[in-house]
């Protein structure tokens, strides 16, 4: 969680939370989990992009 | 008269004819010559020509050209050839130095996001000081070995992309990985080199020591560190915590000192008959609990005794959760390798059916489920759940409930992975309930089990991989398009090359001494190393490790050979199996010949994912389905872009698991949130088991928005708070979100919420 200082003198809709905070995207590549796609080398990043799904959890019976 | 010469770096230095004489003499000597007068005479001839050309300060390159001409003209063809070869070799070394300096420059000044080499290892932040220092060391070491240590033949094959020598930067330094038997290590205490650590007397202490063992060993090796018997190794710690908690509960009731001492002594002797950590037997099972009750009722009423035991048990369970929570936090934060990286840690568990072992497994899973401080998914350790018939695999098995929990946690966190003890190639090693004979995996996939060096000790404990080198299969396919037999011929040659290279490296590794590995060898972690004196060479005990050949891009290789890969046609599958079987049979034969553990691994393709294909695209052009992507497919996998059902993928990949005795893993990618369909998740794991997979896991996207706390799948915008990546959103919007809280909960409240998710009885 990102904490906001609760400064009631400023209207809540004027405080912006999370500027420059990126989504975390955990992926498994070459056996290890990696917390951010930014650190993949080019080959790994391309491999991750190309992946297709082998089944869907929504339609599996 | 020539007085000066201009070097390549433009420096002008005094001219010395003796240097030309020496160079010619050395070249002649390499061909068996020994005529010093002749070399002097030839050097004079060179001088005369240079003088006649009228340059005051000739350049080195030009002087060498003249030497070549003189040698050839005077009929010394062989000497000329040796001279040219030597010159080329020097040029190569020089270029390598220039290249190295350029690399170091980029490492210093380029951003990781713009420079691929800085992202070679995804778990090192190449932009930090220690991360950069590690990369400097790594690049400099590689350049040094390629120029001076590695035979030119292997160096060239690596540079040109025929093979990939993994962890080349550690060539002269150490071996890959090890499975640490923590139960043995803890017994009697151990030393990290800076002080002695006593036997752990509680589960918290045991888990902290497990982290220290992993961290210490990681400084002695370049690969991963794994614990093969995680719950067995920590179970004695749980028993010791229980005894402590009984004592604590008695203290709370103001029990007399002598009674407390008596009880403690009796329980300790029961659980640890010899007093040592490894002599542990369960005290939380029925027999142990009856014994405990008996001791307590000597002075307490039955009701009071029950209350004490209940309190102690609950406290022990809580302690165990906190210990496992601590372990996961530690392994994601404490650094090793010059401080640049957390250790590559793995833990294997799942088959210990004692209440202590089960308490460890359950709480490890719950701690993984809870995640890190803000609920982040832990990257380490890699959890590997052992699925075994009669223990954890099926309804009615004592640890089946823990297997179900493992599925649930994996559906949320991607770990645990699952290893299958009953796979046809893992099962033969099993001997009763002894965990020494269960196959444990290194998290990335490495598997070590058979042992030619000592067939009596076929175990994972205290052993690991020494080094591995991979063959670029697509290149061979591209060189022999449509010519399967030609392919196999050259494959044989490449296998020979890899074997020779592995043995050359093994010779270097063998000469190292015990003192070079203060923890791995000094503390007797590696099999038989306990008997070594500090200056003993490690060669003899390293023979317990594996020398491993790997391969990459079977799919692209098949495409090149017959136009289809093994996901597309049964014929390709047959050919794929023939290729991998050939690799395995050659490794077996080499093992037979050398009495060393030559094995075959399905290469994890660390830094390799894009290296080979770049070279091959230059050589063969952009070929659809082969060189048109930025990576080659991992080992024997069906290409990630190819649409195929989960079951078919498992069915097609399973036979390769049987062949790759040095390690393997298969993945299934699932769409949607598997937490919503745990039965499906378990079905896939069971399909892996039934079809003969050795080690596998299920991939699903795990995204998290740190701002609103949403965990799940995030596309361009967060489904919960609606913000884009990196965008700020008004606090008022956040406050309106259902369930959004300023995280003011205490850790106790958090552990309560974890208790709700899994109601598993001890």
Number of strands of chain A: 4
Question: What is the helix fraction of residues of chain A, given as a range?
Answer: 10-25%
What portion of residues of chain B is helical?
40-55%
Regions with little confidence, pLDDT below 50 for 5+ residues of chain A: 1-7
Strand content of chain A: 15-25%
What is the makeup of the main sheet of chain B? Answer: 7 strands, mixed
Structural class of chain A: alpha+beta
| Gross morphology of chain B | elongated
* Annotation, overall tally of beta strands of chain B: 18
Q: How many angstroms does the end-to-end distance of chain A come to?
A: 36 Å
- Order of helices and strands of chain A, N to C? EEEHE
What is the strand content of chain B? 5-15%
- Unreliable stretches of chain B (pLDDT < 50, length at least 5) are 742-762
So how many helices of chain B?
A: 24
User: Which class best fits the helix and strand makeup of chain B?
Assistant: alpha/beta
Strand arrangement in the largest pleated sheet of chain B? 4-7-8-9-10-15-14
Enumerate how many helices of chain A there are, as a single number. 1
Rg calc of chain A: 19 Å
Name the overall outline of chain A.
Answer: flat
Short description, anyone?
With 61 residues, chain A is of the alpha+beta class. In chain A, 15% of the residues lie in helices and 21% in strands.
